[in-house]
């Protein structure tokens, strides 16, 4: 029997984390599958961390990362590279994950090369074209190009059905982040990962903060920054941990918090490895983020999440009462964070482990 050649395209760190469990399963059946990996290099430095940690090496790497490049520039680079790769490698199916530009352009290239396409994490929607931008349109268009739709939840499946995707082409699989996170939590978390915590941190409420989305560039990030300052000025019992994304639009705002003696309870540092990040999630009292993946991981750990966005494509967590969408206004971030710190009953209602994405 001919083996099925499966080509996985990965551009960013979250794609690597979420596609590794798929790659691992495919490798378990070498008589059935021949999995290959293309790394586009959209977020080269961050994605390379994941390849190294999970020990799976790309078969092709494009290295298209360029400082401050536009979406149009990235698209112009990837279309010929991916189309030629598909024509040359002749895969039986291409797998993409999520809603990045790499995933969308790989989907378009697969269509041009007349290669079957599978979409992992299909059906997530906010129903707002520019929020998130460009992810909402990326994933919506991928759905029109894909033949196999691996939806993580029933809500995602219903979104696809409303868009006219055939029921027989949709498979509710859960989210592969659950497989990845559980594996790391069981085998790769060690006590010495607490090296970034200052002395006395055990007596403080740790608030883990991340923000990197394109729609939050500019004033929204400045609002978040101001709220963090106000929070630590209000209470010395709050310790904010802020890993800063490598994007210059993020660094230019948050860099002022680095080693600022006026805010000793705000600790900034470069992006963490995946095991380190999960470790600090386990230590957190509360998580503030605009990341979708963190919302999913937090549900496994029982950590409340305040979502620094206007909308979310993961209503499962909001409906379950373990996450709230609070936007990026300084006063809203300050008020809601302080409320969950001071009101233990409301905090306890949110601090629940929920099996929403498995």
TrEMBL record:
The keyword rRNA-binding does not apply. Its EC number is 5.1.3.14. Residues 25-358 form the UDP-N-acetylglucosamine 2-epimerase domain. Pfam families: Epimerase_2. Gene3D superfamilies: Glycogen Phosphorylase B (3.40.50.2000). Keywords: Isomerase. CDD domains: GTB_UDP-GlcNAc_2-Epimerase (cd03786). One of its GO terms (molecular function) is UDP-N-acetylglucosamine 2-epimerase activity. The keyword Nucleotide-binding does not apply. Belongs to the UDP-N-acetylglucosamine 2-epimerase family. This is UDP-N-acetylglucosamine 2-epimerase (non-hydrolyzing). It comes from marine sediment metagenome.
């Amino acid at each position: 029997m001919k083996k099925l050649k499966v080509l996985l395209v990965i551009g960013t760190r979250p794609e690597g984390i979420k596609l590794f469990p798929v790659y691992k399963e495919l490798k378990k059946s070498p008589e059935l599958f021949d999995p290959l990996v293309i790394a586009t290099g959209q977020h080269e430095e961050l994605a390379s961390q994941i390849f190294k940690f999970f020990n799976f090496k790309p078969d092709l790497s494009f290295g298209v990362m360029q400082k401050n490049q536009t979406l149009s520039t990235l698209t112009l680079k990837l279309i010929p590279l991916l189309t030629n790769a598909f024509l040359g490698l002749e895969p039986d199916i291409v797998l993409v994950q999520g809603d990045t530009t790499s995933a969308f352009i790989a989907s378009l290239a697969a269509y041009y090369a007349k290669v079957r396409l599978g979409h992992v994490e299909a059906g997530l929607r906010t129903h707002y074209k520019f929020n998130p931008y460009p992810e909402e349109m990326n994933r919506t268009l991928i759905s029109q190009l894909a033949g196999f739709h691996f939806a993580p939840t029933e809500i995602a499946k219903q979104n696809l059905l409303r868009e006219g995707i055939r029921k027989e082409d949709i498979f509710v699989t859960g989210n592969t982040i659950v497989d990845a996170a559980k594996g790391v939590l069981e085998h790769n978390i060690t006590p010495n990962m607490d090296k970034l915590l200052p002395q006395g941190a055990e007596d403080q409420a740790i608030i883990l903060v991340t923000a990197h989305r394109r729609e939050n560039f500019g004033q929204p990030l400045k609002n978040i920054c101001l709220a963090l300052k106000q929070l630590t000025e209000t209470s010395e019992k709050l310790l904010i941990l802020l890993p800063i994304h490598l994007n210059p639009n993020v660094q230019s705002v948050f860099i002022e918090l680095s080693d600022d003696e006026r805010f000793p309870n705000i600790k900034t540092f470069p992006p963490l490895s995946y095991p380190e990040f999960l470790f600090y999630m386990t230590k957190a009292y509360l998580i503030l983020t605009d990341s979708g993946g963190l919302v999913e991981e937090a549900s496994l750990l029982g950590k409340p999440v305040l979502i620094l966005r206007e909308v979310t494509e993961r209503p499962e967590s909001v409906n379950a009462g373990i996450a709230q969408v609070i936007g990026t206004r300084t006063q809203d971030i300050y008020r809601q964070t302080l409320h969950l710190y001071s009101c233990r009953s409301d905090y306890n209602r949110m601090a629940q482990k929920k099996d929403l994405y498995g």
